[in-house]
Design brief:
α2 runs antiparallel to α3, α3 packs across α4 and α4 crosses α11. The chain is 76% helix and 0% strand. The chain has 182 residues and is mostly helical.
């Protein structure tokens, strides 16, 4: 954490924001996607996250790392969006997207499409938000139980409980076996 702060100590706000975007941009996009399940919405949320980061850089108190701080902003933005009227009441673009539009995806979108087609990832996306977020942070983002606790403001034992419930649910959906066990 100190290393993270020292690295960025002598930079302007704009330079710091550029560094944070380069370092954490992909992570923010992945996390946002797991909440909204649509690439364009995830990109919009990612932009909003970094706008909020820029606006809040002066008030960053170094009580956590930039990584944890950005995760927290991302999770809060995603939760706010998912609770919003428009998300709950409008059809996502992906539902009405035509076959021709799907074929015109960029290479990065095609790579994302392959990941979306992955059976396990689809099962993870079908979990409730509370279970999904701990699975994503733990397995896809490699955060520890305590780091997840800091990001989503829930006690470590609750994180452990949600991980266990998510693993059980995924195991049942896939049909048994010993997977995702510690």
């Amino acid at each position: 954490m100190q290393e993270d702060q020292d690295k960025h100590e002598n930079q302007s706000k704009k330079e710091l924001l550029v560094d944070l975007m380069e370092e954490y941009g992909d992570m923010v996009l992945r996390v946002a996607y797991t909440y909204v399940k649509e690439r364009q919405l995830a990109e919009d949320i990612s932009q909003e996250v970094f706008i909020r980061c820029y606006q809040s850089l002066q008030s960053f108190e170094n009580r956590s790392s930039y990584k944890t701080w950005i995760y927290r902003i991302t999770v809060n933005n995603c939760r706010d969006y998912v609770k919003s009227w428009s998300f709950r009441n409008l059809f996502p673009k992906s539902i009405i997207e035509t076959e021709n539009e799907r074929k015109m995806n960029s290479p990065s979108s095609q790579m994302e499409q392959k990941e979306e087609n992955n059976e396990l990832f689809e099962k993870v996306l079908n979990l409730s938000v509370k279970l999904r977020e701990v699975i994503i942070f733990y397995y896809y983002e490699d955060l520890s139980i305590n780091e997840i606790s800091d990001v989503i403001k829930v006690k470590p034992n609750t994180i452990k409980s949600r991980l266990r419930r998510a693993r059980i649910s995924l195991k049942e959906q896939i049909g048994g076996g010993i997977f995702l066990e510690e």
